[in-house]
Design goal:
2 copies of one chain form a homodimer. The first copy, chain A, has 305 residues and is α/β, with parallel strands linked by helices. In chain A, 26% of the residues lie in helices and 27% in strands.
Chain lengths: 305, 305
């Protein structure tokens, strides 16, 4: 089974703190690295946490508040300076395309590598990437500017071979792949052995839902239901719910409430206001609602399984 | 006399290294802080070196290569988030104005404080700021895109009072300020005491010349002649003079040669290629031509006196 994990590069909202960088994460699926959001300094965090920037081929930007994208032009420029040739696909709000172009033009830079821009709008959930092993959907969020979350969902995995029955029916090697995909097996005498006798059910597909930035929004629940790991912003503790509502953010308890309603396996909180030094009170508050909650920490990798 | 010094925030060219950030400096003159260039991460370096960002009221950007300005939009946004109200004056290439505007618009941000944009073009040296105690001139540099250096020159200082002759002639306190500005003194009997008997010559005016990025360019020499401190880029050692010429940069020896020809008091080298770990060979090379040479080091403050 492919490795599936997320590494947090920055967990601070709006203003970085000495211990927390601005929003950015690296999602790893097998050999592939996807970058999600890219606040100022993301390229320095990638280097600090020894993540090979050259392996990132896709970038997803949730919205155009600076703490989520001001680092992108620097990363794209560094790739150019490092003589990257592989294309980069960028999934982002439409206005970002001209912002990047304008800065490349001002610096007289024509990147060595293709930048393929995929405008993502926030109105309704859409399939934005159909990757051989994974589908990526946009998730409409509720914020002060158009904002989308992202749902990364593994495609249904093949069924698992049952080694004992394979031996018993003496199935030849070249027939195995068809069994994984649900086909029955017909032996040399013409007898049909049903697939269910030869295989075990597929392992469950894993999924990662990234929801930042957003106010409390129950219409997210059906879209992320059953996710393996939900990252949900928790800018404030619940005593600041008034600020959260005003600014289009969520509290720790609201994030936990969404996780509970969506029946996710685990919840990862992030996008913390710079006002908090110690985040444990925030964590405890959320755990009161949804026990399987974790705090995002810069440089930490969270398995999705 | 006012404090006059420069603190290096970043000394790396193009790509940051673990020990060297991207181009940015803080010039301190008395209570005023000017920011010169602002590569990505400058706001983090300011915090790291405990420089109060709220005291910066003027920003000078030499050119629109990313390593000199990608950090500006983040700093301006942070000021907005910190509820700054004081205006900021930005002296920069004209195209920067729209780049900043576009990013503020995309994020739906109207800064709380006025941003006063002063377009600076690179054709000829100009007085770009006439400050009560200092004049700032643009310096045309020779690079791949339009680039200006900056000369910060203290205005002529008042003459110094000679305490002994003040006592001798019994000059009252209210007449002292006029003496500083070169006036003669007329005593109660109508007798005129010449200024030169009551004062000592002004201390020499100090100046800081910032020259990054630039190829070797002797037409700079008369513009920066006699500067107290010259910051000159030295991207490469002299064995890479071919790269320097191709890329519009200077070698250590070329920088020292300009310092020698301009008869400056001290030379500060910076904008080092990420290829160099140890910079001492580069320093030694420059000192062979101009002895009073120093290396720019992130977080170090260099007095200008």
């Amino acid at each position: 089974m492919n490795t599936f994990s997320v590494t947090v590069l920055g967990s601070s909202a709006a203003i970085a703190t000495p211990g927390r960088g601005l929003s950015s994460q690296v999602l790893r699926y097998g050999p592939e690295l996807f970058l999600i959001d890219c606040g100022e300094g993301t390229q320095f965090q990638l280097r600090r946490f020894k993540i090979s920037v050259g392996h990132i081929n896709r970038v997803f930007i949730s919205h155009l508040h600076g703490d989520h994208f001001f680092g992108l032009i620097g990363l794209l420029s560094t790739w150019h300076l490092l003589r990257r040739v592989k294309a980069v696909d960028i999934y982002a709000p439409p206005a970002l395309e001209d912002i990047l172009k304008m800065q490349f033009e001002a610096s007289g830079t024509v990147p060595n590598y293709p930048i393929i821009f995929h405008p993502v709008t926030a109105e309704s959930p859409r399939l934005i990437l159909d990757h051989p092993q994974m589908e990526v959907f946009s998730l409409p969020l509720t914020h002060r500017v158009p904002t989308t979350g992202f749902l990364f969902r593994e495609k249904p995995l093949p069924r698992r071979i049952n080694p004992e029955s394979i031996d018993f029916y003496n199935v030849p090697y070249h027939s195995i792949e068809a069994l994984r995909h649900g086909k029955d097996y017909t032996d040399a005498t013409g007898r049909v052995i049903p697939n269910a006798e030869l295989t075990l059910p597929s392992p469950a597909s894993r999924s990662y839902a990234y929801c930042s930035d957003t106010a409390y929004n129950e219409s997210l629940v059906p879209l992320i239901a059953g996710s393996t790991l939900l990252y949900h912003e928790a800018t404030f503790m619940h005593d600041r719910i008034k600020s959260a509502i005003e600014k289009g953010h969520s509290t720790s308890i609201q994030a936990a409430d969404i996780a509970e309603k969506a029946g996710v396996k685990q919840l990862l909180l992030g996008h913390f206001s710079a006002r908090y030094d110690d985040l444990h009170p925030l964590l405890n508050e959320a755990r009161g609602v949804f026990e399987r909650t974790m705090l995002a920490e810069d440089g930490t990798t969270y398995p999705i399984e």
